UniProtKB/TrEMBL annotation:
This is Oxidoreductase family protein. Residues 149-433 form the Gfo/Idh/MocA-like oxidoreductase C-terminal domain. Keywords: Oxidoreductase. The keyword Amino-acid biosynthesis does not apply. Pfam families: GFO_IDH_MocA (PF01408), GFO_IDH_MocA_C (PF02894). It comes from the Bacteria. The lineage of its organism: Bacteria, Bacillati, Actinomycetota, Actinomycetes, Micromonosporales. GO terms for molecular function: nucleotide binding; oxidoreductase activity. It comes from Micromonospora taraxaci. Belongs to the Gfo/Idh/MocA family. Residues 9-137 form the Gfo/Idh/MocA-like oxidoreductase N-terminal domain. The keyword Signal does not apply.
């Protein structure tokens, strides 16, 4: 997008939940010389008002607010150049398509959408309009993940034969997906789409490959109504105002987080959305324990496991090749203290991480017939997904160089989705799923 006469590109944000704040701060603080925030759109006026109050705290004027139904009118009224989509996942395609047809560019949070028809609709609209969609896969911008990309591209392990990828969400962070709208698979696509699309995109990017076939098994084991058998459940529907939730380590205390209180508790009267549901209450339709076996266009395979109820948080990636093996292990925190378990991961808002609790990272290359080689890793920031958010917005808003091609396209967004969507189909059928039978990206 070419900047206007004043040198700045005009941005509007649709969807003013917690994740929007990272983008808003980047626009008005970090990249104010090249960008201008000009409008908010949302289904909830109270949330937009909260973001305008926070803008005032940053010394920025309030911006006009629009009901989501007036999204198209907003684009013209505010002369929007680029739309930032941070709404509920199932609504992404609505705004992406409308913006493209109005001749605007789009940056959308991951996942790009939640199912095959919506994905096809976005890809078809990109083709029809010639417009551009960028998917905010911030994990690509994590320094550790960039190091892995470089090492593999340089041939550190030779031709890649297989990948094993294990991701653990602890009982603080993992539980949070079962309190909010993500617990509804129709809204989020489940954790195979909402969460694992990050990880599937990394593997596509690292391997320079596309998924061909997926077999998967997943179930709701720990959370949900049936999870009451494990002995942790308390008898309440939502935490706020419930005596039964007072000392429940799985309860979110909205009134203890001023930002979350403003965005959700104080906004409930408008849309009835409750951010602090009981993780063991009825209505959970997503899985919490998932295993995937995927085959790629290069012939490589991946085994992947996502656990959403672990005692510690982190991940392990092992890449086996014709010249050796690469191993990445990251500990985000090594345990969850019962006294702080009811907090959102890290702080009040998404992507703002807690101080290290036994955290650390190691990156090792193990060549054949040589001692293992420890690769020095950059000290990770504890803010914004290990510093990835700031690096991502530097590319998206600041025009910083991107030699690793981290800015993900709509096709990249579709390919990340397809592994998760194929896994979801395999959950249902118990059979392997050919990705081409779901959708063939352009």
């Amino acid at each position: 997008m070419s900047p206007r006469a004043d040198g700045r590109v005009r941005y509007a944000v649709v969807g003013t939940g917690a994740r929007a704040e990272m983008f808003v701060r980047a626009l008005v603080l970090d990249h104010a010389d090249t960008t201008e925030l000009v409008a908010f759109a949302d289904v909830n006026q109270a949330r937009m008002d909260a973001h305008n109050r926070w803008l005032a705290e940053l010394g920025h004027r309030p911006v006009p607010t629009y009901p989501a139904g007036d999204f198209a009118a907003m684009l013209d009224a505010e002369r929007v150049d680029v739309v930032l989509v941070t709404s509920v996942d199932v609504t992404h395609d609505e705004y992406v398509v409308a913006a493209l047809r109005a001749g605007r560019q789009v940056v959308t949070e991951k996942p790009m959408t939640v199912d095959v028809p919506r994905c096809r609709r976005i890809l078809d609209t990109v083709t029809e309009t010639g417009g551009r969609v960028t998917v905010a896969f911030n994990y690509r911008y994590n320094p550790l993940h960039e190091q892995v990309r470089r090492l593999l591209a340089e041939g550190a392990v030779g031709e890649i034969g297989s990948v094993h990828f294990e991701w653990l969400l602890d009982v603080r962070h993992g539980a949070d997906y079962f309190r909010r709208w993500h617990r509804d698979k129709a809204s989020s696509g489940g954790l195979m789409v909402h969460k694992a699309s990050h990880h599937f995109d990394l593997v596509n990017w690292w391997l320079a490959a596309t998924p061909v076939e997926v077999y998967a098994a997943g179930r709701l084991f720990f959370y949900g109504e049936d999870g009451r058998r494990h002995g942790y459940a308390r008898d309440y529907d939502r935490a706020y105002g419930s005596p039964a939730a007072a000392d429940d380590p799985f309860a979110l205390r909205l009134d203890a987080h001023p930002r979350l209180r403003e965005l959700y508790l104080d906004a409930e009267a408008e849309d009835g959305y409750q951010r602090d549901r009981n993780v063991f209450a009825p209505g959970v339709s997503i899985e919490d324990d998932m295993a995937v076996l995927a085959r790629y266009s290069t012939g490589a395979t991946m085994t992947y496991h996502l656990t959403a109820y672990a005692p510690w948080e982190g991940y392990r990636v092992m890449v086996n090749g014709s010249r050796g093996r690469l191993e990445l292990e990251v500990t985000e925190n090594d345990f969850v203290d019962r006294g702080t378990a009811g907090a959102v991961k890290g702080a009040a808002l998404h992507g703002v991480e807690a101080p290290p609790e036994g955290g650390g990272a190691t990156l090792t290359v193990r060549p054949f017939w040589q001692p293992p080689r420890q690769i020095p890793v950059e000290r990770r920031s504890r803010h914004g997904h290990g510093g990835a958010d700031a690096r991502m917005t530097g590319v998206l808003f600041g025009g910083q160089p991107d030699p690793l091609e981290r800015a993900a396209t709509a096709d990249d967004g579709a390919l990340a989705l397809l592994t998760g969507l194929a896994a979801n189909r395999s959950f249902e059928t118990g059979r392997p799923v050919r990705v081409a039978d779901l959708l063939t990206p352009r």
